[in-house]
């Protein structure tokens, strides 16, 4: 299992870094931030559209073939993007190749989460694995942009994009050849063409992911607006780093504890805490206070992600687990786009950053209200310890007997 963690870093850091690298490349080659925004948006939208398709293929054919083919196509798309950047750096051409990159990105994150959930029978160990998975994501969020910045400053954005492409290809191929990945066999698919979307619990979790994604979209722009108001360009990045550090701390503490309450009940409490932490940002009078409060605001992010992973494993119909995790990625991307739109509208009308932070907290409040435990296999499905571990058949996670199917 340690090898899965190492390869998780190798395959997922570039997923968090490549968008920033493409942004820098587009700015350098076109000289326009607007064009760069269009290029990166094309990649993000394409990724959100493509990842559930990749997830379904993994659930149907296993890890090795879908991941290997996707990695090869993705490497070609990155090559086309780099060539276009130097030969024909128009917005339309770059956006087309960036969309090809996003559409072909291998679903390593979703496959890894499904693997953890499927092959570990003990609930406590499984929660620990999902905790580490969330920590890898936090580290990728912090390390990816920093590495891209360093490489771009030293050698140029093209080398940063190429580095992301190489590490992503190598990490995906490595992951697909590890024994746990190769031995993972798809379960018999349950249900209709809708797959995991036929489960009320999965649909509810996707709605929650849209709302929490919107929170993050609003929050990022709120940090930038606060930095502009304070005439401190570095403040936004410092606040984001502090937010990530708070998430790391919260995830470690959450994963270290053995919980007696059911995950569906914990989800609401976590979202309520998330709302309170983000709302406190509205009281920040200056940059040092914002950075300090950002730690507490981020404290509930990783616990939410871990708890969400647990519930996806419970609610997904048989044979659809990777696709279910993939839809979660799509929902988060869609929510982030919604949050960017809301925050951009507020900032464009001169709304103070304190109000923007309050709006971000409001999305967490809505998520807590939406997260109804009964639809997530709540306490009525719990055993004597108050938890509701999923039933299993072969390598697939089954929904709890009284939970949604």
TrEMBL record:
Residues 383-398 have a biased composition (Polar residues). Residues 379-405 are annotated as: Disordered. It comes from the Bacteria. GO terms for molecular function: transmembrane transporter activity. The chain crosses the membrane at residues 33-55, 67-88, 94-116, 128-153, 159-180, 201-223, 235-255, 267-284, 290-312, 324-347, 353-371. Keywords: Membrane, Transmembrane, Transmembrane helix. InterPro entries: MFS, MFS_trans_sf. The keyword Thylakoid does not apply. PANTHER family: MAJOR FACILITATOR SUPERFAMILY (MFS) PROFILE DOMAIN-CONTAINING PROTEIN, PTHR23542. This is MFS transporter.
């Amino acid at each position: 299992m340690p090898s899965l963690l190492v390869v998780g870093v190798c395959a997922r850091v570039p997923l968090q870094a490549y968008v920033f690298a493409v942004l820098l490349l587009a700015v350098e080659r076109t000289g326009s931030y607007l064009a760069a925004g269009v290029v990166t948006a094309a990649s993000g939208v394409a990724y959100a559209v493509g990842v559930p398709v990749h997830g379904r293929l993994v659930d149907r054919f296993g890890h090795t073939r879908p991941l290997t083919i996707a990695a090869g196509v993705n490497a070609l798309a990155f090559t086309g993007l780099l060539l276009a950047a130097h030969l024909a750096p128009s917005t339309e051409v770059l956006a087309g190749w960036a969309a090809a990159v996003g559409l072909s990105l291998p679903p390593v994150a979703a496959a890894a989460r499904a693997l953890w959930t499927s092959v570990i029978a003990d609930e406590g160990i499984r929660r620990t694995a999902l905790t580490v998975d969330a920590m890898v994501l936090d580290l990728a969020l912090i390390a990816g942009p920093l590495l891209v910045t360093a490489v771009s400053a030293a050698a140029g954005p093209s080398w940063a994009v190429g580095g992301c492409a190489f590490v992503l290809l190598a990490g995906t191929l490595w992951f697909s050849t590890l024994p746990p990945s190769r031995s993972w066999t798809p379960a018999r698919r349950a249900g209709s063409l809708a797959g995991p979307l036929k489960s009320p619990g999965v649909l509810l979790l996707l709605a929650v992911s849209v709302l929490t994604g919107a929170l993050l979209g609003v929050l990022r722009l709120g940090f930038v607006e606060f930095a502009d108001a304070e005439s401190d360009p570095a403040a936004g990045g410092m606040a984001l780093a502090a937010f990530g550090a708070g998430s790391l701390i919260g995830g470690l503490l959450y994963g270290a504890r053995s919980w007696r309450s059911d995950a569906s009940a914990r989800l609401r409490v976590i979202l309520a805490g998330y709302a309170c932490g983000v709302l406190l940002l509205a009281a920040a009078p200056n940059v040092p206070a914002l950075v300090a409060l950002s730690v507490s605001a981020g404290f509930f992010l990783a616990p939410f992600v871990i708890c969400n992973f647990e519930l996806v494993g419970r609610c997904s119909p048989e044979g659809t687990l990777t696709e279910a995790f993939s839809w979660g990625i799509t929902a988060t991307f869609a929510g982030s786009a919604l949050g960017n739109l809301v925050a951009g509208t507020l900032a464009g009308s001169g709304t103070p950053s304190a109000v923007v932070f309050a709006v971000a907290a409001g999305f967490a409040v809505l998520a807590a209200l939406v997260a109804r435990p009964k639809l997530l296999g709540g306490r009525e499905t719990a055993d004597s310890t108050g938890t509701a571990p999923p039933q299993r058949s072969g390598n697939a996670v089954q929904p709890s007997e009284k939970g949604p199917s």
